[in-house]
Amino acid sequence: MGDLRDPGLKSGTPGIGEATGNVVAAVCPPAHPRATWLAACRAKVAELCRVDLRSLAAIRIGLATLLIIDLIGRSRDLVAHYTDAGILPRSVLFENEGLRSYLSLHVISGSAYWQIALFLLAGYFAFKLLLGIRTRLSTFASWVLLLSLHHRNPVVLQSGDALLRLMLFWGMMLPLGARWSIDATAGPLKLCHRKDNSLLSVAGVAMMLQVCLVYWFTATFKDHPMWWHRDAAYYALNVDQLVTSFGLWIRQIDWLLPILTWTAFGLAIAAPLLVFCPIWTGWTRMLVIVAMIGTHLALAMSLKLGLLPYVAALSWIIFIPSNWWDWIKNHSRRNKGLRASPPRSRWWFAILNWLPTGLSISRRGTGDVLIDIPTDRQQGIRARGWEQVVASLAMVYVVVWNLQWLNTVSAEPFVPVQVAAGGDVLRMEQGWNMISPKAEALDYDGYFVMPAELADGSHIDVFTGRPVNWSDPQGHIWHDPGTRWRRYLRNLAKPDFKYYLHPFAEYLAKSYDEAHPPSEHIKSFDIIFMHELPLPNGGYQLQREELLHYVDMP
After folding, report:
1. Is 52 helix (H, G, I), strand (E, B) or coil?
2. Nearest CA-CA partner of 493 in 270, 210, 241, 124
3. What is the SS3 assignment for 188?
4. Which residue has the higher pLDDT, 442 or 466?
5. Chain segment 388-414, per-residue pLDDT in tens
6. 70-76: which pairs have CB atoms within 8 A and are 24 or more residues apart?
7. pLDDT value at residue 241
8. What is the mean pLDDT of residues 5-21?
9. Which of 286, 300, 335, 399 is deepest in the core (most CB within 10 A)?
10. What's the distance, CA 384 to chain centroid?
């Protein structure tokens, strides 16, 4: 019989399964336990840091919706807040805001028509972002226009504006249009060919880290007796400028306020840690997400905080794991069955095929290339390398900035002046001290009284247009000027914003005189802030501060 050994083996080499003495040759050596453990750790870290493309799609839809709502809300005060005829003329802005005020597209002209054009342009790109049409371009344009709008009038900005701006910034480096978009289903560059929904990228990690930083650094400002003594919810719900009717009802339940205080403090510390729990990750993350979204919605019902609770609730969607999206998809299929689409709905597919051509500038593609960090030697990076570098540098900058925010008492800053200036221009700065002893909502709680003397000798409150009310702060709740005006008035009470008082007074006098006959024109008025200090045993103490006396010159 012939030789039955593998012909590829060298002469004299035993074949597979042949005995060499009393030892059988091993096919592959066993893996070292340490190598196996390291591989398992790498796999777990990659699992915890991955984001799902459907989570990114949900965030894209939410961000676009909030942008449109924000533009509609701001448009009501477009003339007052963003033109030279309003509360902040460009000359005052340039004098007090420095370099970044010159980098705003909204300061090119002080007319209302220019602002309307930019608002419509921002709404156009926000709508394209909502549908996922040229998603990367739409995200970048929305971020630029939002940054420009924030540069135009920073006095009306809140923490929710900062978080919305940061989420858009990280979104520019993520494939927000890879799912549930026209780019993915009918666009020139179809992204739905990728069946794997999980994605590991620096920008994805940075967005998750940004969400965690908001709560970790908020918790650091809660190291105060009012939190340990369970009084924080009481003080927060006693801010008459912010409290809603639901909040007024909640603050009457004495036994509930300590529970709310400790719950808010515990979630701020534990929630960002639990989403990275290495065991039962899916269930733990979903419990945390539901708890945080519910908390923010309850906060929105209790306090008038503008965009903040909604953007914060939306940001937690980034942590939804892939297996939960798969479960929702499979559950939906079981309920709906495998029915074919009815004929009457076929025209929707025709629209989807037309929209990318009709609404996109060109057919060159969306530019939404998926970004993947290699987790082993066989996997390569399929993305623009500069995006990884930018995301990495920005992530380090954000962490250092937050650390410096804690170091406000030190004379030596962590961030060099030149580097801080660059981040300041891009508004990467952030400070998450909401509802803390250092928060301006608590330090500057109160209401404004602006008694004016008219030409006919009568007196009114020039801001409300109603009789002057001195003694009843609750009476000012029924006159709600809106989110932006509330923020603006709260800032006016601070010494750092005294330069904006005179332009505000000029705007009030001019607006009132234009709407009334000469016999009722304003002669003079005062801007007075009634500082309301809540007392631990209930009630409040009023402190009167006269900020400005204005005389209307004919």
Report:
1. strand
2. 241
3. coil
4. 466
5. 788 888 888 888 877 776 655 444 555
6. 70/164, 70/307, 71/119, 71/122, 71/123, 71/126, 73/482, 73/483, 73/484, 74/119, 74/149, 74/484, 75/119, 76/482
7. 77
8. 43
9. 300
10. 25
